[in-house]
Structure formats: structure tokens, C-alpha cells
Amino acid sequence: MTDLFTRYAWAVPTKDQTAQTAVHALWAHVIQTFGCPTRLHSDRGGSFESALMYQLCKCYGITKSKTTPYHPAGNGGVERMNQTLLHMLRSLESERQQRWPEYLPELLQAYNNTVHSATGYAPSYLMFGRHLRQPVDLNLGVERESPCHDLGGWVKDHHQKLSFAYEMARKKMRAAATQNKRAYDRSARALPLVPGERVWIRDRNRQGQGKLHPGWSSEPYVVVEEVTGTVTGKIWGDVTQWKIVFLCFVLDWTVCWCIVSILVA
Questions:
Q1: Are 193 and 221 in contact, with CB atoms under 8 Å apart?
Q2: Which residue, 162, 98, 102, is CA-closest to 129?
Q3: What sign results for the dihedral spanned by CA atoms 176, 77, 106, 36?
Q4: Over the stretch 152-177, which tens digit does the pLDDT of each residue have?
Q5: Are 27 and 87 within one domain?
């Protein structure tokens, strides 16, 4: 779990991925200590899309949202944190990797107290408003905070520093988002969806065909509407209900038809 503004991360080892386990982890490790988030964004895993999770969000006034199918970039902040955490776990010795839950708190401590490239600040500083004392500080005799002689002046100065840090973090994240968008747009293709148009969609159900699988649906789908302001659209299949599909998983029916015609000729 990750707070997308501060990049503060939580990781809870569990024995299963049931809805009850996911709800308890969110409630016990996040809500109880840090309060209720305004939004909970997740993938389409059953534990996060369960009725129990939606009931928890309803009780605490949390807006629940989810990514489009097979599109992990829709929750890129969490995916990136998971990747970093896995790299840290792989750095452990083989014997210690067997007992990875024991070392998870220490790895999270290192992650949350390291300057994040997306914000320019340590996640713990943006979350708590101060630099947490670390073992290295105790060994070196370093004092993170200077003695306070004027409480009112300290509060005012601290508020100014934190406001400045938040503003700088926002600017840095906006700049990073703009840079990522430019990099993505270099290879992206625009495909406006016209209601009534037939399209192919990416078929993720390979069923053992491996490299010979065409990768696209065997029958074309019909566009219902393009979701305004997003990169998704509603489509309708011959035997299925309408679904929302990410545009990068949609192919114009006429393009594929032309390719087939040329190959046959």
C-alpha cells in the first residue's frame, strides 16, 4: 500500500489474499493510525473488489476506484514500490530470504526514510513533518532537531518549512508526470472511438496456444461510447455485456481486415 502524495509505503505479510485479510490489513495498518484516505485505488483483485471492501469504504467515506483490466500502469506508484521492495528482498542472503517477513519492517524503514526521486523528500518526512531519528544518527551522535526555546516561533517556522516541502514535492511530481507523458506519447497511437464502429480487443486468454495465438479477439466488438476525458471506451460483444476497455488494447477492425485481405491475395 502506498500514499501517492508522500510515497509512504506499507507492506503487510499475510497467509492468504481473502477479502477479510485485505480489509483487516487496511483497517489495522492504515486507517487506525493514519486516518481515512479520501480514495482507495487498486487493481481488480478479488480481495479489493469484494463486497466487504466496498462496505468498509462506505463506512469510512472512502471513494473506491480501480484500474482497467491488464493495465498495471494504472496504479504505477504501487507497482513501482512493489518492484523496489522485491529488489531489496532479493539482496538478502539465501537463508534470510526464507524468513523474509522478519526483515520486511527494516526494509520498509529504509525505504520510507530514503529521499524519493518523485518528490525530492523522504516519504516519512512528508508524512510526519519531521526527519525520523535513525540508528545511524544515534551511532554518529547526530541531532535531527535543534532544541526549541520559543514554541510559537518553532510552530510557525515548522509550518513554513512543511508548506514549502509540500509545494516543492507537488512541482517535482508534476514535472515527472509531464516527462512520463512525453515518453509515453512517443509510441502511443490515437484511436478515436466512434459509436457503432467495430473493433478488435486484446485477448488475454491464450489457452495454451503460446506464440501461435493471434492475440486479438476472434470476433469484432461494437463501440458503445467513448468515455469522455479518459483513454477508455465502452464496447459490446456478441455474447457478452458491455465492458470498459483501455484504448491501447483496441485495434481498428478495418486495419486488421485490410492486412488479412493482402495476405490472402
A1: no
A2: 162
A3: positive
A4: 776 788 788 888 898 999 999 899 88
A5: yes
